[in-house]
Amino acid sequence: MRTIALAYSGGLDTSIIVPWLREHYDAKVICVAADIGQGEELDGVKQKAIASGAAECYVEDLRTEYVRDFIWPTLRAGAIYNRKYLLGTSMARPLIAKKQVEVARAVGADALAHGCTGKGNDQVRFELTYMSFAPDLPVIAPWRIWDLRSREDCLAYAAAHNVPVAATTTKIYSRDRNIWHISHEGGVLEDPNSVPPKDLFMLTTDPVDAPMTPEDVTIGFDEGMPASVNGETLDPVTLLTKLNEIGGRHGIGRADIVEDRLVGMKSRGVYETPGGTLLYTAHSELEMLVLDRRTLAAKDLIAPRYADLVYEGRWWTTEREAYDAFVNATQGRVTGSITLRLCRGTVTIAGRQSAHALYDERFVTFGEDDVFEQSDAAGFIRLFGLAARVRALKDMEAAGDANAASAGKIKNARTPKPGELTNA
To answer: Which of 9, 13, 175, 337 is catalytic?
Structure first.
C-alpha cells in the first residue's frame, strides 16, 4: 500500500491516525479536510496535518454545496430524526466522503481511511459513500482494529507522538461542528441524568441570559428554498450564517436527545442548531398555509422515512431521488414569508404571508358572507357519516329494538323547522 487518503478533521481521532497509519502501513498519508462551516476550527489544519506526518492536506470549501444540495433538500422534506434531531452531522458525511474519493482518485491513492469509531453511525455513512463511488478501494478504519480503547488512550498516544490536540482529560467531549449545527457527546453527557454544563454550549446563549426583549425575524422562501431574511435576499451560506447569529443570540435551537444509533444502542447527545430551528419552524408554517390537507399528510408520511435515510447514510440511493421528486412536486407553491418572534429560547409565529395561501378570509369569517352556503353542511355531514349511521341502524335491528328503522323506513332524517318539535 503506497498512498492512503484520510478523511481529516484535525480533531483528536484523525490527528493521531496520521502517525498510526504511517507506522502500521508504511504508506504516504494524504489528508482531505472539508470546510463545511467549522469556522476557526480549520485554522492551521493543513499545517497541523503535515506536522503530524501527512504528505499533503487538501482543504476543500464545500459550504455552498453542503447548504444548497444537502441541507435545503432535507429541510424541504421536513426530515427530523427521533423527534428532535435536525441531522446536522448525518447530512454532511456523504458530501465529505464523496470529496475524499475525488481527491483519492486525483492523487492515485490505494486505500481510503476514516476516524469513525466502531460504535458510531459515521462509519456507515462514510463507507456507504465509498461503496457508491470507490467500490474498488479498501477501507481502513483504525478504531476497529487498533489497541487504543478510549479517549484517554488517544490523548496518551498523541502526547507520545508529539501531536497537538485541543481535547483534555477534563474536557473530553466529542464534538462535530458545521454551518448547520454543533453536536456534543461524551464526558459527563454519557450520564443521561446529568445536566449539560453551562460552558458546554458554543453557538447559543443560555436562555436565562438571553435578551428580555423579543426580536422578530422574517424568513422568505421561494418554492421551499430559503431565500431572504428580513426582506434581504441572501445566498445560502450567508443566509444560514445570519440566522445562526440571530437564533443563537436568543438561545434558540438547543436539543438534548437520547437517540437510537444505527448500530443498535442508545446514545445521548446535545445539539445546537439555532438557524436550522428557525428554518424548520418557518418552512413548516408556510407549508400549512399553502398546501392542502392531503398533500400535508403525504409529506408527513415521507418525512420520517427521509430522516431515516439521511441518518443511516443512504444518501446516494434511488430511494432518496424518489423522495426528492415527490418533495419537489409539493414545493412549487411554498413561496412566501413567515415572521417568527424569538424570546429567551422560544419561537412563536408572528405573521404569515403568501400569494399561494389557501386560507381565504371570505370563507372562514364569522361575519356576513356571500360565498359559503351553510345549509350545504347538512348534506355533507349526512354523506360523511353514512357508514356510521348504517352500522348503528343494523346494530339496533340485530338487538330487536322496537324503535329500529325497518328496511322501508330507513331514510335521511329531515331537519325540523324552528318550533316544529315543540308544536309536536
So the answer is: 13
Q: 330-367: buried (b, 16+ CB within 10 Å) or exposed (e) per residue?
A: bbebbbbbbbbebbbbebeeeebebeeeeeeeeeeeee
Is the overall model pTM greater than 0.85, yes or no? yes
Catalytic residue among 22, 52, 76, 122: 122
Helix (H) or strand (E) holding 403: none
In the annotation, is 395 catalytic? no
CA distance 282 to 288: 10
Q: Give the tens place of pLDDT for each residue, 254-271.
A: 999 999 999 999 999 999
Options 174, 183, 267, 337, the catalytic residue: 174
Which of 22, 63, 76, 93 is catalytic? The answer is 93
354 is catalytic: no
| 122 catalytic residue (yes or no) | yes
Residues 391-422: tens digit of each pLDDT = 999 888 888 765 655 544 555 566 677 777 65
Contact call for residues 253 and 259 (beta carbons, < 8 A)? no
Q: Are 126 and 114 in contact (CB under 8 A)?
A: yes
Contact indicator for 238, 333 with CB cutoff of 8 Å: no
Query: Which listed CATH number (1.25.40.10, 3.40.50.1110, 3.90.1260.10, 3.90.700.10) goes with 182-291+333-359?
Result: 3.90.1260.10
